[in-house]
Protein 1
Amino acid sequence: MFDIHNHLLAGLDDGPQTQEETLEICKAAEEFEVHKIVATPHYLEGQYEPEGELIRKKIEETNDTLQKNNIQVEILPGHEVYLSENTINKIKKEDILFINDSKYILLELPMNYIPEYLDEFFYDLSVMGYKPIIAHPERNKEVIKNPGILYRWVKEGVIFQLNAGSLFGVYGPEVKKCAIDLVDNYLVQVIASDCHGESMAGLEWMARAKRKLEDICGSYTIQFFTNAEYIINDEEIICEEPTHFESKSFWNFLDKFNFSERDNTKKD
Ligand SMILES: [Fe+2]
């Protein structure tokens, strides 16, 4: 397996703080048959801004240690960029590492809303020849309310990455439900661990996700894993046609209820 989203490098973000922890994660990865991992430390302006040169140096040192210890895992470069209006400028200044130096960039949306400049950002990125991968959309509150809002972007070629742990309720029941709805409607295309090193759970969830996904989407399951390989190799991913999806979530129900309440008030 290939993992395109992992915070295993020590001392760069809220992942592990020691090289020993990094090696423990790599040993767990080997055990769960994850043999290539993209290190994606957070790039969050004002908080985490690890430089590409430093990331590459840490990766080189880690890969050397892995080889010496005969651990069959290779670390590759990347960033997870928290989206801001300044992200395009950061890309132009070459401050950002793309996934294994491919055309794919891993982006994180704010948790509570969808930025109004998102379409403009996607357009600017496409003009530059790059492709966005949005990390864990199932954790965004607007997506939880209405998973179907991703449909338009999937049709436009935006890639959405599911966290394996979301399928098992690691981030709560609402995120789990959203994750299943997204898989069921082909609105996510690739799976990753988003391992932060506090435990090896992210990687274990990756290993366990296959069976879970097979229950939801049958033979399409394999695409979640092969797409990770295509991304690392800078190849085109394979997508199923997404389905229109109207959420029947509690929040949507509540929105409609409030709407009819207002209508009733008007009638009075
Ligand atoms: Fe992450």
Protein 2
Amino acid sequence: MTTSKNQTRHPLELVTQTQAELSDRPIQRPTGLVEEVYARVRAEIMSLAIPPDTRVTIESLARRLGVSQTPVREALSMLEAKGLVTKQQFIGYCTAPILNRAQFEEIYEIRLLLEPYAARRAAEKMSDEQIAELQRLLARMAPDGDATRSSYDRFAEQDSDLHERIAIAGGNRLIAESLARMHIHLHIFRLCFKSRIASDAHDEHAGLVAAIAARDGAGAEEAMRAHLRNSHARFSQFAQP
Ligand SMILES: [Zn+2]
């Protein structure tokens, strides 16, 4: 068994090992490589740099990112779990199609049924510490003029986090799980790439979090309803027929 040949590899590169080497070697890889590939590809899919419903091959991604195929394969599995790519027999990976009009309307219909109620319950039940965490998350989401693809993807992730915290704090596990399973934010934010969306949503989030912090259940419910209606209006024109 050899170990020396691994020492000169590119820091971002995985070791290509033979079967014989694999048998007795502890798992070794630079930490964070898969995550880095995942974050890169995810940001490209979210910002439509890689268009919807488009074939992505492991080989071409590996070549473009300058890494071996292994971390790309792992990153694509993670993206598949999030619903951003699908794996099709004989074809390989494709980016998920964009939401159609009916799916878009269904998502907002279920959100408007569940999330305002969850916000009311969160205002009544959230602990002071959970509220403080929510306020810290809100502060991190403040627009900073950065209009890059990765900042857009980060906002989508944080928005998802904020809504999930409220749903969980509402105390109904089924509501929280139903919302989480739909990967709502990934699909909605993928309808278009516009940095304005983050700043528009920020004021609405601030009002919502303020109502929760004031333990104002009715106010939180109404703030969530208004936020969802505005969000619907922001994205509606981008949903396909
Ligand atoms: Zn939101």
Protein 3
Amino acid sequence: MVPTDGAQIAYERDGVNYLDRVAALFGAYKRRSVEFLKPFDGMHLLDAGCGAGDDARALAELAGPTGKVTGLDVSSEMIAVAKQRARNSVLPLNFIQGDICHINEDDAAFDRVRADRVFQHLHEPEQAMRELCRVTRPGGWIVVMDVDWSTLLVDAKPVELTQRILGYHFTRHANGAAGRSLYGLFKGVGLSDVEVVSETFLVTDAGLAFFLWGLDVTARDVVDRDVATRSEIDSWMAHIKARDQAGAFLSAITGFAVRAKKTT
Ligand SMILES: C[S@@+](CC[C@H](N)C(=O)[O-])C[C@H]1O[C@@H](n2cnc3c(N)ncnc32)[C@H](O)[C@@H]1O
């Protein structure tokens, strides 16, 4: 599908298809993120910004029939897909439309709370963090994961032009610096046992990288936004295509996951 709105980013343009591709390619980090949350049988869990609900369903398997998992997402389309995908589940799963910055749940309602790749979309990440904290019970754990768009690299020349394009790409995200800021956000709300880990995701197929990082939209946008000239972007894309055909393309981005405990 050719995007019509240059302001759109990858998951907004391709929706569930995009989320499914990421999960298929990088499922290992998702499994590790679930372990990082320390979920147990019988727990009440919140997946904030749950998308199509696949992670919430995985959590429901761990929480079991005496637990409960709530998936929350601002998008009614995502909630509809999440409900549809969970229709055959016998486990206690609940999907609700709502905003992570104003969660319609009681204080201390959950034993475990997580958000995966949501903070990059937020204009008020501090407010979201306070809300995640509020709905977590004392003794409960919170895990938030996100990439930092400043860590996106593409092996292409000229390097100065590549950095100009990637710099513009960073600004297309509401909170492109989400990844680096998570640790500080956790510290800022007084959580204890704060741990941070990072992971770099490598892609050596140019078409896949442009799809995953949303660079295809950016490459179309840069001329209108006066970031690059038509001739610069045409030769940049031709250079990347040649590298790809030679099997020599590389791109990567780093994500961060932070875990902490709520003490009081
Ligand atoms: C990149 S997707 C990630 C979805 C899911 N966590 C996953 O890992 O597959 C980002 C999700 O955050 C949701 N989202 C964005 N802003 C939100 C907000 N303010 N409150 C709740 N969900 C939000 C989007 O609708 C989307 O489903």
Protein 4
Amino acid sequence: MGRPTILAVINQKGGVGKTTTVINLAASLSILGQNNLVIDLDPQGNATTGLGKSNSEEEKNIYNILIKKIDIKQVIQKTDIENLDLIGSHVNLSGLEVETANDSNRAFVLKDILKAEKKGVLEKYDNIFIDCPPSLSLLTIMALVASDELLVPLQTEFFALEGITQLVKTIDRIKENLNPELKLRGILLTMFDKRNKLSSEVDREARNYFKEKVYETVIQRNVRLSEAPSHGLPCVIYDKNCVGSKSYFKLAEEFIKNNQIESAA
Ligand SMILES: Nc1ncnc2c1ncn2[C@@H]1O[C@H](COP(=O)(O)OP(=O)(O)O)[C@@H](O)[C@H]1O
Ligand SMILES: [Mg+2]
């Protein structure tokens, strides 16, 4: 497929661990030597602030790229983590859907911008992670159209699997109509609590249904993961030895291993 791999982290439910996964998986991979870019496509801008940047930066943000006000080269910011760059979000992003209502090509805008720079400014990245908003709105569709692969976090709690059927339908529709190459890279079980019987039940059900698509690595529930963003740091840097960070390092290793299997096949 060639570098970089564009991955959307997606689930239309909020609070399932999308942003936490984008920040900590990207940072873990960067620590392991890969070069990563995070694109924050959620108007809330949690991935932006979680990586220590402002989500009210007027110039350097994804909205300005999508409205073609600024070139992508000018909005990429370095984070404090080596090998980890960011295109930040801005609250203006929430108006994009209405503003572009008359543009019949709008689902392709992000794809076209990324494609044009794949052999340019984006060539140095191994992975580009897109943090999606908690909806199946235009922004999420843009991410689905622009991506090579999808990573779906699934919170190990009641109703977790309910929304998934709708998501799978949307993915199938996008594959049929807009992006035939799109692949489900993996489903990630998050906020796993071994004291909670429900966690193990969702784990079993998800593996039963999605088989080997579910990552072996499970992200444990760990309060350090929720504390780190207020320090503007990925947890894997803020407290690299906590249970949550260990989960994400393990995921990064599994992620790299899968890549090697894929490219050997
Ligand atoms: N494994 C975890 N253990 C404890 N808290 C977590 C974990 N993963 C995420 N959180 C917290 O749960 C909330 C929702 O997570 P977030 O990654 O923002 O979800 P999303 O991006 O899907 O809305 C945040 O406050 C986050 O810090
Ligand atoms: Mg989020």
